[in-house]
User: Fold this.
Amino acid sequence: MTTTFKDASAQEIAQVMEKSWQAFLAYKKFSLKQRADFMRAIATELENIRARVIPVAMEETHLPEGRMNGELSRTIFQLNDYGKAAEEGSWLEARINTAGQDPSKPDLRKMLVPLGPVVVFGASNFPFAYSTAGGDTACAFAAGCPVVVKAHPAHAGTSEIVAEAIVKAAKDTGMPEGIFAHVHGASFETGKALVMHPLTKAVGFTGSLAGGRSLFDMAGQRKEPIPVFAEMGSVNPVFLFPEKLKQDGEAVAKTYAASITQGVGQFCTNPGLIFGVEGEDLQRFLGVLAGELQKVAPANMLHPGIAKAFWQKRAKALEQKDVHTEVAAAGEAEALQGVPTLASATATAFLNNPVLHQEVFGPYSLVIKCKDANEMLQAVLHTEGQLTSTLMATDDDMQKHPELVDAVQNLCGRLVMNGVPTGVEVCLAMQHGGPYPATTDSRFTSVGSDGIKRFARPMCFQNFSNHLLPEELQNANPLGIWRTVNDALTQSAL
Assistant:
């Protein structure tokens, strides 16, 4: 049975933020190893609660056991991986320029230092990996920041169990009181109070464009504006090039049917737009894709709110002028279910109707029929920023259409060739972020240890005595980290 949690009051939030600030003053002085040990302890506790938390997560999200176990394992991996990166220290971007033999020059040493308390909003579609102990939380801890998590009300019980595991790990590793806090709040006011509190120094968010933009605007209206790192979804356009479509159109269609319906389409990297040039090859692709989608049964979505939004946005998209429905379930599906849906429209309709650009979160995709490559280019130039874009193309296709390839590259943070955008690898080379409205800051990623940098700022120390410097910048390099010394990357001591 789902447990109901009371929204945190303004007074409770104020107390939480004050404790978080006091924890920051202590935690920022903890060593990189201490941070890493804390994160590894959280990972261990998450493994310890696996048997207890998985059934709760399954009940709250309607996600299957295999998916839940896999996501929890990914969350554990993230904590260990980001902890290792924190300890290794290259993310600090330590820079040293010594005065040398010129007494008129200062000794300058720069590194990243933590921002302060970070508020993290749990995501609805990833109860582990993007929520209470997820990537934003792990990155903030690695950067030296305390974390205050606002649980997502759709899986509040899961979040509560995970929060208990973090608190235990904090106690076991001697972390300062207030290093982590967990609050509930289904109301808008709870989130607003957290963002607007003067001791909040950054926000991490994964969710809708409306939600992320609201937090971003609030943060900008503060007396002291703060960064909001919001990942707000994407339609992840796919561009079918002529030779590739002719050679492998049927296989590509089958591959994309699986991608569109994976997890009932509830991934921020779900391919919601597919562009191709009109002709027999595109029609054959469309026919195979439609046939494959019709084989996929409706399934329960994460929670009633997401299901309701899917049906409303789906209906709005399908009722637009010049939109042809290719696949849609007959009659009414159960209220909580998402049904595989495919539509098509001309590029002219896409260019003239902003509704066709909008994300329909769920198992939905829209095929855009272009007259030729030039019209496809025009469509690209009128497409908003994305997390991913995909080129289904041969090498010859790429060489014949360089302007189109360049334009697609400008859209996104991750450019995929001959693959699917669903599936986000946790590694240093991953970029999970893109131009607005995909995210509020395309310079950063929310996946991979480079995401640690979101919650830190550069600090330069000028003419400090060596023993007064942070260990990371001292002459002997006692931590053995990589540093750029007088413009040369090295691990050596000065």
